[in-house]
Amino acid sequence: MSKVPADSPPNSSPRRCTVFQHRYVGYMDLLTDQATAIAYLDDHPSWFRRCAKPLRAEPLGATGYALGVGRVGAFGFYVEPQVGLDLLPQANGVYRIQTVPVPGMADPGYEVDFNARMDLQEKETPADLADLAPRLTAVEWTLDLAVSLHFPEFVLQRSEGWILRTGNGVLAAVVKRVSTMLTAKVQADFHQSVGLVVPPKTLKRLRESRQV
Q1: What is the spatial distance between Cα 62 and Cα 86, in angstroms, rounded to a whole number?
Q2: What burial class does residue 101 get, using C-beta atoms within 10 Å of its C-beta: 0-12 exposed, 13-18 middle, 19+ buried?
Q3: CA 116, CA 142: separation in Å to the nearest integer?
Q4: Residue 54: cis peptide before it, omega within 30 degrees of 0
Q5: How high is the mean pLDDT of the chain?
Q6: Distance CA 138, CA 123 (A)
Q7: How many CA atoms does the CB half-sphere of 129 hold within 13 Å?
Q8: pTM as predicted
Q9: pLDDT tens digits, 9-35
Q10: In the chain, N or C: fewer CB atoms in 10 Å?
Q11: What Å distances lie between residue 190 and 18, 47, 85, 176, CA to CA?
Q12: What is the DSSP letter of 159?
């Protein structure tokens, strides 16, 4: 993993920490009852790493993963971020994911604060899809993400407003790319796991019908 040096050179001023933030809301529907959806999601060791590909996802304790999202950056400054995620057990149809440390990882020059909530709600299936399943489980998640970066001096020569606008845009694009990919894979994997053949166009509709 590419890392930013943790210590400033002698006689140099400390690097300024710049914080980028993004909130993301995503949706998908699973053509099944809530109990079946929960049983699948609870068994994340059987699907998370497979669905995360081509991203790297290594087990981290009993409920966590060290997830690498590839090389990202701007301003001529790039990192290959890795974040530890703890997939907490669901409670009353609500899942939460929080950041945890990745053991043995030296200071990479950034910090990630990842807080996600996923809610499940069982509903009737739309009439035109009732032949596939009588009930569906609507899944909605909200991610609040903050990334703190210690930039080198050549980046800090640009205006703070420009850095924030560009960095927030890069963060939003990365979150959307990863979330869209992972959602599609999990949704397809779930339906395959229960032996339900759902046309790709229908799966896409079940991901995007509530997007605004």
Answers
A1: 9
A2: exposed
A3: 6
A4: yes
A5: 85
A6: 7
A7: 20
A8: 0.83
A9: 444 445 568 899 999 999 999 999 999
A10: C
A11: 39, 9, 21, 21
A12: -
Delimit the domains of the chain by residue range.
17-208
The CATH architecture one would assign to domain 17-208 is: 2-Layer Sandwich (3.30)
Q: What percent of the chain lies above the pLDDT cut of 90?
A: 58
The Cβ-side half-sphere exposure at 62, using a 13 Å CA radius, reads 3
Q: What is the DSSP letter of 195?
A: T
Helices 160-193 and 200-208 pack at an angle, to 10 degrees, of 130
* Alpha helices (H) along 135-159: 153-156
C-alpha dihedral over 102, 106, 109, 112, to 10 degrees?
A: 10
Three-point CA angle 80, 83, 89, nearest 5°: 155
